[in-house]
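chain below, 208 aa
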Amino acid sequence: MPLVRKPTGAPPQPPPVTTGILEGLSSPNEDARWAAARAAADLAESVGPLTAALQLEPVARVREAMFTSLARIGNGESAAGVLPLLRSDAAHLRAGALDALRIMIRDTRELLPALLEDSDVDIRILSCELARVLPGNEATSLLCDLLRREQDANVCAAAVDVLAEVGQSEALPVLAACAAKFPDSPFLCFAIQVAADRISAQPAPIRG
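prediction:
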């Protein structure tokens, strides 16, 4: 009986799963891109491909899956990858980036002081929304610093809106000063009064 020789070379290996996922992000098939975007949440190295694919993706549910995976990865790299999308001309990318950064606030919070001082008014406004998910004392401190220096009424209105929800009593004199700074903006002055009333109505914190 003839002997069957064993193959001398190593058997061919299937391509890494990672390769398939990353290639799937650029597939012409919508379902394949959606599946790849969801699977990419388990690959820290997918941050770059995900953020690149986001800017070209035409389908809303695929973009949502991409943003969700970036938020689930939730590290400094993913926050840094999403952050530039706040400056996008596309409203859907700005909104998706804001939602993802809210979820990643642990990795975003150290960037907030600089964002609140950004030269772009729209970035300062969006950054106020990021402060909304911070603890009240932290959000109050950041937004009061903003109100003290801010000269744009729309940015102040965004900060006041957040303070109406999460602000603490330390914000009251800053809100009063802001109203005095914009006496010709009745809408802002009204919003400040509403925020001050809500903060004043809060029970005093119990100190140990």
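The CA atoms of residues 60 and 92 lie 8 Å apart. The chain is about 65% helix and 0% strand.
thats it, cya
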